[in-house]
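Key idea: predict the complex, not the pieces.
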Amino acid sequence: MHLMYFTEQPMAAYDANEGRRYGATALTFSNKNFDPVEGSRLYNEYLEEYILADECGADGIMLNEHHNAPFCMQAKCNVFASILAAVTKKVKIVLLGNPLPLAENPIRLAEELAMIDMISKGRLVSGFVRGGGQEQLATGVNPAFNRERFEEAHDLIVKTWTTPGPFRWEGTHYQHRVVNPWAVPLQKPYPRVWIPGVLSKETIIWAARQRYPYIALNTAIDATKNIWKLYCDSAREVGYEAGPENFGYLIRVHVQDDEERAIRNARQYMWMQGEFTGLAHPVWANPAGYFSPSGRRAFVEFAVGRAKNPRGSPTFEEQIASTMIIAGTPKQVIERLKMLIEETRPGIMGFWGNDGVVPAEDRRNCIRLLCQEVMPAVREHGKKIGLRSPFDVGAPVSIAYSNDLRMPAAAAE
Amino acid sequence: MSSLGPDKRAKGETRMASPVAWAESSIVVAGLRMHLMQAGSGPAVLVLHHDVGTPDRLAFYDRLAERFTVLVPHHPGWGKSERPAWARHVRDLAAIYQWLLADRKIGPVSLAGLGFGGWIAAEMASLAPREFAKLVLVAPMGIKPPEGEIMDQAIVSYIAYPQAGFHDQARFRDIYGDVTTDQLEAWDIAREMCFRLAWKPYMYNPALPHLLGGVRAPALIVWGDDDRIVPRSAGEAYVRALGNARMETVRACGHFAEMEQPEELARIISQFLAA
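Result:
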């Protein structure tokens, strides 16, 4: 298994009461509530914590980015990735990921990622995302073309990484006269691409057709199994059998030496309450055109308060019960995780260790226990039950580099 | 006037069977199936609806149809008209409507554009400055307001946006009632079309004021005195850009003048078109 440490990098020092008073903690919640002195302290603490995770034996550090909200301080995951490329030694730097549609110039992204790959000596995993609805609004990018831009930017970046320049790109959303960047990835054919997601069926199918591992972001067990099934079916259609190396699972897991402290800190996961991106208006999370047309009817009902959030809004206790949050001593946590990986069978796992306002020493202790006690036990158990990562099995980077594809039955006839 | 309950809503013209005989047809323009409603006789008026789409029957349409041949299409991508997946600009809709008029061989035509539809009408006139009999723009989008900004529907809820277009919320309830899920869905689709055509810059074309000076048709700009969606300064900019134009104000009226003050708006427009 490939086991990663993750945190949203919360801007935990802002006054949460201000957000409650305003009624939203995203998009239009004023950045006057952001304190750069505290921001500077937190950025540096988070950086030290990543270095600790590397030293304590994590396989990967998972990074992401968001905008206009206190729940995530990373406005550009490539910035932290660049620093980690230089200051860490062994961990994979796993970006989950760069929001492609937000890029007006995907070539620039391809260059940045190639630089990170070279500086880290080939430790980059370059995940891509569509970006949340609010990210489109925060960056002024048209939500109606989100998926088209995602797919086209991906195709352009992969071509940039794999085809010697110069070449010209005349796409629907991107046009480039001369594609010929003098920074190309160290890893060949190109760095691994993993696709994280929550519920868009289109993204799952797209990832399966590319043969990119899909990382389910803290979905419930049943939902996760449904995702795998859809992925497996889509994989079969293009000629391969998906296995644990195609599946990743991000889970919130906080560990301390004593259970009470672990539970107390784990309650901070609720800090990022309401919508996925904090407390927000539904139309910000799903601006028109961003969401799948098949979900339009359910969404508009939810948006005006006539239906429940399709993502649900379970309580802390319910999330503990359903293992969407795991908290306790290493021993307790290991037992829960063993059960969880037996149920969901991922080859890649992200441990979302800290969120909200957790004291710095507790955050560091959580990382030490996760990396030194929990990860080895989970890795061992995973091995026993046949959970192997893309690195373990030498999986092809994408469908285009697969030499084990079966002709689909219909085509073979 | 207290709020109108369902029993009183029967008074609201919009929910009543229209006294005017409307013919509905499905036509193909630019390869797109389009929905067109037509009624009345006399000089032809093409009515172009708002960004939020249009109810099928409005007292305003009926009043106009008493004196004119009124054509009310659903914009491509709105209501019952097919989406042009390739369209990227309001000018694309302007070209589609020129095509529609050419196919129907009606002329000379006047244009009456409502809000977003006013922008389409202005684009049509700028592209064919000799073409139209008269031009009526009711609180048109399309020009960057010199003062204030066009209200951005991207960050407000489906119901809050149309509500903002009414001076009197009782009139909103008359028209939309409790707002059906079908209506919410239609508003989401309408919103997506607005994004596809006018995301950035939002709801205006920086070139338009420079292109309106050639328009030969006399123009009337109408503004509600309580329009919270398009600032009145944009109307003044239209008057300056068009040259042969004047402005009228409708009292106790928001952005959706045809729904809020149908009689008054129909009277103003009829008078202008008949003069």
